[in-house]
Queue: 3 jobs
Job 1
Amino acid sequence: MDFSDVTDRPRRAVLAAAGVALTGVVTGCSDGSGSDASGGSSESDGSSDSGDGDAASPSGGSADGELTPTETPTASLEPSDVPTRWRTVEGEGFTIGVPGSFREDTEKASNGTTMYLFDAPGASGKASDPARVAVVRDVKPTAGVMPLSQVLVESKAVENEKPPVRSQLTWPGVEKPAVLVQWMSPIRGGHGGTQETWQLMVQVDPDLIINVLAVAPEGTLEKKKLAQVMSTFKVV
């Protein structure tokens, strides 16, 4: 599922339904047909793939081995402990560390799941002012992280001049490898500039993928400690 734009407004009227359907705060959601504009998944009715990673990709791949990332991350992301003086936020099935200066908010999706939002100091939460980490639960995904992340990469490759980078990570608390997708895109809102997005996709079990996203103006994602916040994500 593509939760790539976590910086759209209004903050309140955000979620429509496509798995963890997100309109407003997260765009690229479904029209109800079972997949979003980027090929992501929606809540399953039981007739779709099981989420075990064996679903076919648009390119014809049918097994994780054919879809395994080989790229090196543009910047590394390593699991880490929560730094001293940061607060630990407990979400549904996960924890994450956040600096005290970050603003915290949640939004409810129509399927009952909660999206967790963490804005860096000074960020407004608007599309023209991105500096945010979001944690989004994809319930009953139509496929596993390997094919879904490949679909995400293919959609972003069409939209952007610079090709996305998709890399495989070992993440604590889960058996299957996680996937990190990193890409650049224009900042929305008509103010120009480029934003950087990192999307970490962690397969908890066949019925749940947790997505952790960071979005910030190009060159500032790590400076604003968004990558460090992502690194503290843990499945519990």
Job 2
Amino acid sequence: MNKNLPQAIAMVRELLAGDGDVASAIGHALDGAGLLVDPERTFGAVLRRTPQGWAPVAPATQPAPPEPTELEQQASDWDAACERAAQLVDVVRATYAAEPDFVGVRADRDTVVISLQITELSRWAGWMSTLGIVEHQLTGLDYVVCGRTTIGDVPVSVLAYDVPELQLVTEARARRPYRHAGILYDLALPQEDAQRDIWYFQGENIEGMPLLSLDGRSERCTLAAIVDLVGPLHPVSEPVAAAQGGERG
């Protein structure tokens, strides 16, 4: 039962004994006592979905506002962000499903999560280059590295499983380890670039950056420049002969 009903009945009973426009007096008295519901009074915004987007729940007699409120706009923006993420999932799956490292992709609300199973560090270097992941965007655990990037305006998390273990194994075996842009290289091994050219370690510059050259050429390039221009690099199995190592430049 409406808890206001006893008070309303008592007020009506009292006013019925009066003179004049009794009905009007009763109505005003009830309204003044807060016993009537005002359909135009708002007690807080409640949203509902419509074919046109989010809109406030309002009495039928109250027209919808011509412009969305801030709350409505935030809800619409969130829906749009989640829809863009769902669309990107389909694009990523169609583009990369055939790659041997690709495990899966899913939408987590407005974010896309890509899962990879990495068996070679050069493959992870390739993914980082393709997806635009740089070193400061990496975080890691004992069994996975997470790279964060964006595709379009959609935030993307890339989970690269087994990368930490591969890095530990590579570092333990490496005769000349060097870490650059989140990738560990063994510069005692020749490095093959994306164009199938082979680069050999030829010392370091004064800043400690490794210098490499193509076989038989005197020009030296920094490892960073080679990775940026013709990477990713992956090691060739035969170690570099001692005569091919250069002095610090």
Job 3
Amino acid sequence: MQETRKKGGILPVLYICLILWLCGLALIGGAYKSKKESEAIKSQGNRATAYITGVSEYEVYDEDGDLRDVRDIYIAYELHGEAYNYVIKDAYMCASENDIGEPVEIYYDGENPAVITVPENVESKVSIKLSLGIVIFCIPTGLILFFGIRYRMEKRFRVNRDG
């Protein structure tokens, strides 16, 4: 009796899982990089208070052609008698027009006060990227377990049935 085999098998599942693992690792790595850059500036201990001067919300098309909402937050701060303006492009932290004039904690580079980090934005970014990265990393693990167990059960059933 000739055995018919299904097309595909587990190999396409492994390829998909590999791609998902890499995407998950990229997000986790991005979160780590954001946190590390922020910590480098915060470690200098140069803290200041900035104020939200504007919030701009608009829609953009991403690389896939999908429409997504983007928020830019404009802040102003003064250091050593000099005024600075900064735009948090594609901000992760929540702010709206109602928050104009609200204080925001910032840390700045002692050698270049125009280089800042906004801990609230970094924490939001890290939280989103890390959570999403972990979920995307765990999905292929579940797929491998599901299809691996299923494959072994089918193989065991075939052996028991044939033998």
